[in-house]
Amino acid sequence: MKASVKKKYDNGTAYSMLAPIVVLLTIFVIFPFGYSLYVSFYDWGFYQDSVFVGWRNYYLVLTDDLFFKSIWVGLKFALYVVPIQMVLSFLFAHVIRAMGRRASGFVKTSIYIPTIISGIVASIIFGFIYNFDGGLANYLLGLLGIEKIAWVAEVSTALPSLAVPAVWLGFGISSLIMLAGLLDIPESYYEAADLEGANSFRKMIHITLPLMKNVILFLVVTGFVGAVQQLELPLIMTGGGPVNETMMPNLHIFNHFRNDILMGYTIAAALLLFVVLGSISAFIFKILNSEKAIDG
What we know:
Largest sheet: 2 strands, antiparallel
Order of helices and strands: HEEHHHHHHHHHHHH
Strand content: under 5%
Helix content: over 70%
């Protein structure tokens, strides 16, 4: 009978390796979050003493119709951006996968370029595109005999017009993540499906999508959270107009930060937005019900 081998656990090494990240999280995440929670119960300003007001700041936020409208606008914006971005990324990842090595390398580099472009730069570029008199969008409409549109000045078109650059900015990185998920699927699964006579649609439904569930979940969650928190596009292109139809949550909070003498409302609104984003993420996790894929 073999003698049992005792495993030796080196907890000291583990703790020493975890210590740097724990210290950084404490300094840059936990402490600021705790202090902001504390400040949210005060009339707090940069140049005067704080005054305890209890839940008044939260009451002011929760009774502000514009705050709830900004949340709704952010959700609508995410519903414009995320589904289109997901479908395009999924299709484009398949196209790249079918390319040769050189061609795919060039295309991957090309589609990643918008990702590293500042949102402010993208706002300026698309501002020129949407220009009423000399913009490319209205020029193309003129070629089709269609009247010009004030893309970012009309209620019906302002938010969809902001969604286009948002999709463009995030399309590259989401396509590459989709491509990585596709390349991680063993070819033997598709070969077995071919032997069973499965067509491309059935292979996508029964192999590709189930095995990419966690990748899709990640992109949906990060896409929704990122879209709801969009700031640069509405700030530069519309300023939240027309009639607050592009006033997204971060822009609403930023306006209060610029204009309010006291920061209580701003901090309370930011913390409530954190709750909203956490709830959205939990809802998406619940709906998609992610499970780890098991090979074999």
